[in-house]
Amino acid sequence: MKRRTLLATAALGLGLAFGGAAQAQGMDKAKACFVYVGPIGDLGWSYQHHQGALAVKEAYGDKVEIAWQESVPEGADAERVLTQMALSGCNIIFTTSFGYMDATNAVAAKFPDVKFEHATGYKREHPNVAIYNARFYEGRAIQGHIAGKMTKSNKIGYIGSFPIPEVIMGINAYYLHAKKVNPNVELTVVWAYTWFDPAKEADAAKAMIEQGVDVIASHTDSTAPLAEAAKTNGAVIGFGQASDMADYKPSPRVSSIIDNWAPYYVKRVGQVLDGTWESTDTWAGINEGEVEIGEITEAVPADVKAEAEAMRDAIAAGTYHPFTGPINKQDGSAWLADGVTAPDGDLLGMTFYVEGITAEIPQ
Amino acid sequence: MLRLEKRPSPSRAWTIATPVVAVILTMVAGGIMFAMLGKDPVEAIRTIFWDPLFNAQFAAYSRPQLLVKAGPLILIALGLSLGFRAGIWNIGAEGQYIMGAIFGAAAGLAVYPVESRLIFPVMIIAGGLGGFLWAMIPAILKTHFRTNEILVSLLLVYVAQNILSSMALGALRNPEGGGFPGSRNLSQIPAMANTELVAGTGMHWGVVVAFVAVIAAYILLQRHILGFQIKLAGQAPRAARFAGVSPNRLVILCMGISGALAGLAGFFEVSGPAGQISIDFATGYGFTAIIVAFLGRLNPLGILLAGLLMALTYIGGELAQFMLGLPSAAIQAFQGMLLFFLLAVDLLSNYRIRLARKEIA
Predict the structure, then answer these.
(1) Who wins on pLDDT, A199 or B353?
(2) Which of A64, B14, B52, B115 could disulfide-link A60, Cβ–Cβ 3.0 to 4.6 Å?
(3) Over the stretch A197-251, which tens digit does the pLDDT of each residue have?
């Protein structure tokens, strides 16, 4: 690829022009840039990433400049956006959606002095690419517990975005913990095939409500499913996803998973400033504060709330793992033996449902 | 009071001036919108229209990117313009674009990991064929059952999007991708990659084909009997019939050509800039091309310029979002204004504005 050399030369020239600002040793001022898949006003996934970006600015003041671009499609456009960011002098670029994976690695090859941080992916093809993710399944286990206890119809639902391991992991954790407290529970999964599309998300919620589902968890980024649940006068409940979505308290939103990226972003930008940044693979959860459980409201009975909080604390303390055997796969074959906890590798490559789920993963 | 009076024939001067006036009005109205958002309007307009071309920091990268972005727009818009001229409304280029990408990628991935110089040409043909076949559905339904091609072609876009999702998750999914959706990255497979032909220019095969298509369409419309028939059918359908032009044949030809060109655009995109079949591969080129076709006055040279202008608003718009912190919705509104003003000003080529005189009793 000749363009690669040309751009590398251009990047080198830029680095020199800025007095070698992008060298491995520390720097006085840094520019941190963020790429979002949705609008920052989605009040969910992208909103939370942007809160993290603002926390970086708050933490370092004049030493750090932040810039961002919202609603960047996960395809050919992402590579151009990333290149333009690198050309504009960003020292570290956070790409906050799975679909930016190849683009992140391709642009990282052309700008070896710029640090790239890719959320929720698995490729680190260059020493200037790091990956990070959060253990959302820990929060899903708590939601599953609440769902199993709260459902009256014994039908619970999950709005999936895309059938990728990240989402399948969440569905399994949710179902396992609902089943544990309510053996009669049935799970319905609807795939929206989008991260952010309020209309499609609302349609998915409507379809489930019509089928008698009365607890809905969602893996998409908007508040639309909660807005649908709110129309049922308390008959259907749901959870805040990615952000607290406190506007729907105390019901239909009875709890939430909050992605708190701020500690990680502040730490990583700090490492760029003092020159200690390294390519890492981070997967933090409730313990590290990256996954937070939003307030469990009074719509949930006190004993259920206490159990859910006890589970949260046990997960944080490391005494309970949401995937602890015995667990069988959907086809009945054994996955985890009694007392064995799931290795991270199994979770990150999860392409099967656990036993008891009747739906099928779309092929 | 002002009154509109229909011109006996469209004004030539206004036909040419309309796009320019529309662009200027868009800049003014957009500037007002940016100012209301608390941004410096002059700086915003400069960032959108000037910086991608001449800013020392970005231009070396964004100028070639203009071609990359404009290539598929021009290719699709050219095909559409032929049909639009003949009064055949293919609104589903997005679907044909998707099917072209799927057919082309599938043809190559079927023989993976064989390396041969023949693979790429075969994939090009498959891509064109994919778009052609997808366009034949509304075309044949129209010629045989008199269905409305606008509705059928548009609805087939949604079918194509679902096929795309299913391909990314199923048949074409990368077996080494860890269960994640998306095909192998074609741009990383030498036999299938649609690479830059001259380093640093953005020129890939798709751009070359788009330029060739501009010339071919120009010759077709100016010199070829088919071009004459297309124009005649659009302007005077009855006269065309008397002149022996078969409406059905025109439908098949126009839909077929526009489908094939959209399919080619899809293939060149998937094997180059996009790299892989993924769930969100389709980003609306097929719809934006409709704006490009009209902005270019359905004229091949006009479409070439309109495609480049549209690409400029995309790339400049990205820069403006990033450098000035403009929300992405503001950029979309800005692009929407362009079409709005174009249609509004278009009135002037068919009508003239007169001061209404008092009517005589």
Answers:
(1) A199
(2) A64
(3) 899 999 999 999 999 999 999 999 889 999 999 998 889 999 999 899 999 988 8
Identify whether residues A203 and A326 lie together within a single domain.
yes
Omega before residue B273 within 30° of 0, cis: no
Q: Which tokens go with A87?
A: 């050309």
Residue in chain A closest to B320 (alpha carbons) equals A69
For residue B99, give both structure tokens: 């099917």
Chain A 50-89, CB below 8 Å of chain B: which residues? 67-71, 73-77, 79-81, 83-85, 87-88
Domain that holds residue B87: 40-325
Choose the final residue of a domain: A79, A104, A134: A134
d(CA A330, CA B316): 50
Q: Is A284 helix (H, G, I), strand (E, B) or coil?
A: strand
Same domain, A73 and A203: no
**Element spanning A328, H or E:** strand A327-328
State the total domains in chain A: 2
Report the domain count for chain B: 1
Smallest Cβ–Cβ distance between A164 and the set B58, B180, B269 belongs to B180
- ipTM of the complex model: 0.77
Whether A177 and A46 map to the same domain: the answer is: no
Distance from CA of B289 to the nearest CA of A (A): 17
Contact (CB<8Å) A99/B274? no
Inter-chain contact B279–A193, Cβ cutoff 8 Å? yes
Q: Is the dihedral of CA B115, B116, B119, B121 positive or negative?
A: positive
Q: Are residues A166 and A150 in the same domain?
A: yes
Rounded Cα distance, B246 and B79, in Å: 19
Which tokens go with A151? 């459902």
How does DSSP assign B262-314, residue by residue?
Answer: HHHHHHHHHHTTS-S--TT---SHHHHHHHHHHHTTT-HHHHHHHHHHHHHHH
> CATH code at A127?
3.40.50.2300
In this structure, the answer to whether residues A309 and A173 fall within a common structural domain is yes
Name the interface residues of B facing A (CB cutoff 8 Å).
57-58, 60-62, 65, 68-69, 165-166, 169-170, 178-181, 185, 195-196, 199-200, 269, 273-276, 278-281, 283, 315, 318-319, 321-323, 325, 327-329
Mapped onto helix, strand or coil, the DSSP state of residue A86 is helix
Q: Are residues A156 and A27 in the same domain?
A: no
